[in-house]
Write a structure and sequence with these properties.
The complex is a heterodimer of chains A (about 500) and B (about 200). Chain A is mostly helical and about 500 residues long. Chain A is built from 17 helices and no strands. The N and C termini of chain A lie far apart (about 65 Å). Chain B has about 200 residues and is an alpha+beta fold. Helix content of chain B is about 40%, strand content about 10%. Chain B is built from five helices and four strands. Classes of the chains: A mainly alpha (about 500), B alpha+beta (about 200).
Amino acid sequence: MNAKKLCGVANAKLNAFVTWTALDRTNLSAGRTLAVNYFIVAVILFFAQLLFGMIAATQFIFPNFLYGWLDFSVNRMVHINAMIVWMLYGFIGCTYWLLEDESQTEIVGLKYGKLAFWVLTIAVAVVVLVYLFIQIGAGNDTSLWLINEGREYIEAPRWADIGIVAVVLTFFYNVVATFSKGKWSGIAGVLTLDLVALAGLYVAGMFYMTNITHEQFWWWWVIHLWVEATWEVLVGVIMAWSLMKLLGVRRKIVTTWLYIEVALMFGSGILGLGHHYFWIGTPEYWLTIGGFFSALEPIPLVAMVVHAMYDAGSHSFKNSNHPAVAWIIAQAFGNFFGAGVWGFMHTLPQINLYTHGTQWSASHGHLAFFGAYATINIAFFYLAIQHWRGDVWMSGGAQNAWRWKWALGLLNVGVVGMTIALLIAGYEQSFIERAVEGSTWSGYFSAQNHPSFQSAMVWRWCFGLMTFAGLILLIWDLLTIGKGETRKMAVVDAE
Amino acid sequence: MNENPLWASESFWKKVSVWVTAGSFLILVVLTLDSLSQTEVGGKRVQAYSVINKKIDYIYQADLHKFMPVIGETELLFGKEFTEEEAEKLVTLGKKTTQAKNCMNCHTLLGNGAYFAPDLTKAWLDKGWLSKELREDLMIKFLLDPENNARTFGSNRKMPNLHITPDEAKGVVAFLKWMSSIDTNGFPYNFKTIYATEE
C-alpha cells in the first residue's frame, strides 16, 4: 500500500515537472523524438559522471571517505563508464537528430529504434546498480559475465556487451535503411562507414585472455580506435551537418572538409594506436610507429579549428542558435588543446617512459573527453531544445542568456582548472616517482605524499566543484531556455 | 584560372580519404598479426607461465640503454614446482581474480588503469616486500586481510578487503610474478628490485 502511494506521489511530481518544462513533443518529428530520449538519458548520466568524479576526487584528499562502502575503484569505474555511455547516448541522439533531415525522408524502423533505446537504458541501469551494490565477485567467469569485467572503460559485464552490440546493430539498421529509402550524401556515406567501424571494433574487446599483453593489445583496439579515430570522425560528421544548419555553410565546402578530416584523422589515428603499445610487451617497432603517427594526430584537429572558425567568421558569426555555436567553437579549441596538444605533450616514447600511468594521463583525459566530445553533445542539446520549443529565437538578445553563458564559462574554466591541477600532479609524479625513485611502491607514495601533489588534488577538487556547478546551471538552462519566447528562430542565409 | 583545382575538389579528397584509411588499416592488420605472434606466451617477450618456477630479476642492460627482465635459476613459488599446465591454471585464476575484483580501477597494470594505488607491473620485484624470503607470505597476508596488513607508506590510503580466498591470493601472486617477466621495452625505468637492495 505504501509502495503504491509512493509511486502515485512520484508520478504526480513527474507530471508536474513535465508540465513545468512546457516542452511540446508535437514540435518534433518521429526520429527527433527518439533523439531527445537519448539526450535526456545522456544528461542524467553526465550528472552521474560528475557526481562520482567528485566522490573519487574527495577520496584523493580524504582516503577514508566512504571507505568500505563506495571505494575509489567503484566510484572511478562509475565516473568513467557514465562518461563513455553518456557520450555514446549523445552521439546516437545526434545521429537520429540529423538522420531525417539529411536523408530527406522519414526514419525507417522507428519501433525497433524505440525498443533498442529502452533495452539499452534498462541494461545500463542494471549494470550501474550491480556496480554500486554488488561491486565485485569471485575470480571466475561468472563474475566476468554478470558483474564486472574489470577492464578500464569497458568494465560492463559480458551479457551487457552482447546487448550493446544488438542495440548498435538496430541503430545501424535505422541509419542505413533511412538513407537507402531517402537520399545518400557524402555525410551519409562517411557516417555509415564510421558506424560499421565503431560497432565492429567493440567486438575486439569482448574476449577473456590470460595473456595480458594480448588482452591489452585488443583492449586498445577498442578504446583508442574509438576515441582517437571513429569518434573523432563521427564528431566531424556531426560538426559538418551542424555548420550547414547553424551558419548556412555550403554543402560542397563541408563535405570536402569532411573528407580531408577523415584522411588526416584515420591517416594519423589508426597507426597512432602504436603509442599505447610502447610498454605492454609488444615489439619495439611500436616506439617508432606510435611516436611518429601520434605526433601527427593534432593535425586534423588544427584543420577542424580552421574549418569551424573560418566558417563562423566568414558568416560574421550570424547564426540561429548562439549557445550551440558557442559550444561548437568550444569544441574546436577544446579538441585541439585537449586531444591534440595535451596528447602530443606526452606521446613521444622518450617522455612517455616517465609519464605513462601517471596523472598526466588524467590531465589529458579530462580536457580531451570534455573538449572533443562533451562540447559537441551540449551544442546538440541546445539545438534539440530550440526545435522542441517550436523553433524559437536563440540568437542575440535572448531571455536569460546569462545562464548559458555562465554555464559555458563555469564548465570550461572548471575543466581547464582540473586539467592544470592534474598536470602539476603529473609532472611531480613523473619526477619523483618515476625519474628519481624508479617507480617502486615507496617511490609512488613519496610522490603521492608530496605537498605539491596534495595541493594539486585540492585544486582539482575545487575546479571539479566549479564544473559541477556549471553542469547544474546548464541543466537548469536547458530546461528553461526559450520558455515564453515568442520570436521565431533567426533565418540564416544559405551561401 | 581553374576555379576548382584538383587539390581542392571533393572527389579528390574522397578518394584520398578512402585510400589513406584502407592503407593505414591494412598496415595495422599486418603489424597486429606480427605483434600477436611475437607476444605469444612462451616466446621471448612474454614468458611461459612456468616461469613462476624461476628467479625473475629486472636489470639495466648498458648496451641496450634500458632495463630488461632476466630469468635466472630455479626459485620456486609456494615451495612447489608447477608444470606448464598447472602454472597456466594458477595464473589464469589470478588474472580472473584481478579482473573480478576490479584492481585496475585503483592500480595500473603495465601502466594502464587508475592512479590511486601503485603500478603492479613489477610488484613482484618491489623492495617493499623486504626480502625474498618474506615476500610470498607478506603478499598473501596483504591480499587476504589488507586492512590489518596495510601498506600505506604514510599515505593513509588502504586497500579495502576484497574477500579474496586463499587460492585466489596464490593465483594473484603467481600472476604478478609471471607479469613481472614480460619484456616491457624498459618500462619502468630505473626500477631497483628486491634483489638489488639485498646485494
